[in-house]
Amino acid sequence: MIKFDPITTLLLDTWKPLLLLLLPFSAFVMWFFHWPGRNAKITPMRASKFSPELVPKNLDTIVIGSGSGGCACSNLLAQAGQKVLLLEQHEERTGGCTHTFHLEGCEWDTGLHYTSEGMSLPTHRAGALLNFMTRGKQKWRRLDDPYDQIFFPNDDNVAPGRPNFNNYEFNAGSKNVIRSLIERVDPNNDALKKQCETWMELCTMVNEGFTHLGISRVIPSFLHFMLRKSIKKLYTLASYTVRDVQYAIFNCNYSIEDLLKGCPKAPDGPEPDPILRRVKGVLNHPIGDYAVQPRVATFVAQGITMAHYMEGAAYTVGPTQNISIRSSSMLREMGGEVLCDATVENIIIEKGRAVGVRVRNTSTPNGPVTEIRSRNVVCATSVFNLYHKLLPQDHPVVKEFLDPNKRTIVESNGHVFLFCKIKGDAKELKLPTHNLWYFNSYDLDSAFDKYMIDPVHERPPTVYIGFPCTKDSTWPKRYPGISNCILISDGLWSWFTKWSGLPVHHRGAEYEKFKDQLARHLLDILYESVPQVRDKVEYWTLGTPLTEDTYLHSYNGGSYGTRCDTNMFAEPNHKWTTTPHTKIPGLYMAGSDAFLPAVCGAMYGGILGASAILGYVGSLRLVVAFMSEFATAFQEEDPKLSRPAAYTRAIRNFITEYVAN
Ligand SMILES: Cc1cc2nc3c(=O)[nH]c(=O)nc-3n(C[C@H](O)[C@H](O)[C@H](O)COP(=O)(O)OP(=O)(O)OC[C@H]3O[C@@H](n4cnc5c(N)ncnc54)[C@H](O)[C@@H]3O)c2cc1C
């Protein structure tokens, strides 16, 4: 035993209690500020195919699904020091909606055709978060203005003396959007301009509401009082349809204050006023990003999508596939693993708690099933897959979900997609660098109603037309002399159910004929809008909601998780969607159903999933680690900025920026 002199012994005796307190406190401080992922360097590497030997021992968390949400969730947990296993059912690729595929010597992205400019900026919250996860390896390119152009068939229903345009541009900045709209519909109409400004202000308010809703998911409930007001406004606006809010603002001249007190019901039928008919038709522009017609869609889906693109748009440099490769590679650096060809058959529940999953190779449907255990399980595929497929059907929570009195959310509609390979260089062909949106009519509800009943004879209500080859700066080197194009329109699962049990590529002649009829509409619209490609389409293939079911395991082929209708945010559904928590201990949600659809919304859903597992202190530790990098990004942009000023900017942007779509 060490002997101290009397003075040291006296001092030690006096300070002993303090030292005893100080030691654990300093250990806590050291743990708190030590972020295990800080110095991890990632080596981007594709996922291996599932095999039981590749599964690491003593897993902390298993994440099901490697889309934007699953990748974000698993990445942050790994950075926090957890051993994470990310399982993806796709036989070869991670990424979910962000994966790319190749056929006939060409490449196409699947569900990321553009995103907000914010995702591309290190000084924007979304971009900074992605940088934090990919160590800055994921690069983006801002799309030139206009990033979107929408066009309608020629229409002579114009008010006397007003212009008759059939195409409209969307540029960064809400003022620019309003200016160009008014110029093309009714120049000098100041009252209409004011109403459009109210519309845009509402979109900004929705955005703020979602930021606060997201924050409320990670802070303790005793602090919720700070956010209650703006979340209440959000929920009020969420209970109105897009059509009714348009009626309130443009027909009844409602202010925001009026709207927060109540919203009138729009009369049935098309808008009779030719000016308002156009304004409403054009302001429906974001509809393609959430696939719900104006009579049914919640206004907040419209609002957040509009806000998402208010600063402009961006696209990846290189294939969108790289996002998942770069962010999931972090797992291996931290002792975890990423495996594809791994279908999770079900989640194991023991003593009421999620304790693991049963997995088999997707490529061998009758192959052996492997049980894998972990402390937590995250479902990063839709909430409908979770309760319909992954959990025991006799579990009380599943029974509650299946009870129509206790759950009114439904899955999103699906799409049909036409992937085209075009002969020739994009520049030589003068292919548009912006997205084109075809709208069948200014009366979008009636266009939807007709198409849903008869998709063979009616043209789709909206069609997205994009040329990734013009947006990705690496394309000309990777595919010289070839261009690609993607067209997307709405599609219902019910059109395809009779073929749903049949294997891919063997669904029979009737299915092929139906696909051919749907594809014809899309090809006609492509040739009308970009006539220079008429004889240049060398190859095309059509995807349907069955394709989404096969390659993305989208429940009933639904593209966006929960359908963005007015039920989505209704009180009885708060426990099912827009939350990372479930009622089953050890089981969490990530991805679009944990927050919002779209790549950015699903990424935030993944972050919320990670935060739910890390708890309040763990989440604070994550925020502190992130803020340090966020502040550095501001200093890199402006080297004169002091550290405290950089932190101030980082905190301000973290709390106030556009959140997602
Ligand atoms: C056609 C289309 C176009 C779109 N365009 C855009 C766009 O331009 N911009 C934009 O921001 N958003 C767009 N979106 C929306 C966006 O891509 C999605 O909302 C978002 O990427 C969803 O991310 P997620 O992680 O929630 O789910 P997903 O990306 O769907 O990932 C879920 C993953 O889980 C896997 N999985 C499911 N079940 C299992 C199981 N049992 N076992 C193992 N793995 C499983 C799936 O294979 C999938 O990889 C588009 C979507 C579609 C369908």
Secondary structure topology:
Layout: H1 6-33, E1 48-49, E2 61-64, H2 68-79, E3 84-87, E4 100-103, E5 106-109, E6 115-116, H3 125-134, E7 140-142, E8 148-151, E9 167-170, H4 174-185, H5 190-216, H6 228-238, H7 242-251, H8 256-261, H9 274-283, H10 299-308, E10 313-316, H11 321-333, E11 337-340, E12 342-350, E13 353-361, E14 370-373, E15 376-379, H12 383-390, H13 396-402, E16 414-423, E17 435-439, H14 444-453, E18 462-466, H15 468-471, H16 475-478, E19 482-491, H17 509-529, E20 537-543, H18 545-552, E21 587-589, H19 599-637, H20 643-656
Parallel strand pairs: 1-11, 2-3, 2-15, 3-11, 8-17, 15-21
Antiparallel strand pairs: 4-5, 6-10, 7-10, 8-9, 12-13, 13-14, 16-19, 16-20, 17-18, 18-19
Helix pairs in contact: 2-11, 2-19, 3-19, 4-5, 5-6, 5-10, 19-20
Bound molecules: flavin-adenine dinucleotide.
The site of flavin-adenine dinucleotide has 39 residues, from helix 2, strand 12, strand 16 and helix 19.
**What distance separates the N and C termini?**
66 Å
Mean model confidence by pLDDT = 95
Major sheet size, sense and barrel closure = 7 strands, mixed
Question: What spatial form do the alpha-carbon principal axes imply?
Answer: globular
Count of separate DSSP helical elements: 20
Keywords for this structure?
alpha/beta; FAD/NAD(P)-binding domain; 3 domains; seven-stranded mixed β-sheet; binds flavin-adenine dinucleotide
Walk me through this protein's architecture:
The chain has three domains: 48-107 and 125-136 and 318-408 and 564-615, FAD/NAD(P)-binding domain; 170-311, no CATH class; 414-491 and 497-543, Alpha-Beta Plaits, CATH 3.30.70. 40% of the residues lie in helices and 16% in strands. It contains 20 helices and 21 strands. Strands 9-8-17-18-19-16-20 form a seven-stranded mixed sheet. The chain has a six-stranded parallel sheet with strand order 1-11-3-2-15-21, with helices on one face. Strands 6-10-7 form a three-stranded antiparallel sheet, with no helix packed on it. The longest helix has 39 residues, at 599-637. The relative contact order is 0.17. The mean pLDDT is 95. Bound molecules: flavin-adenine dinucleotide. Residues 64-70, 87-90, 96-98, 111-115, 342-344, 380-381, 385, 415, 417, 488, 552-553, 559-560, 591-592, 597-600, 602 line the site of flavin-adenine dinucleotide.
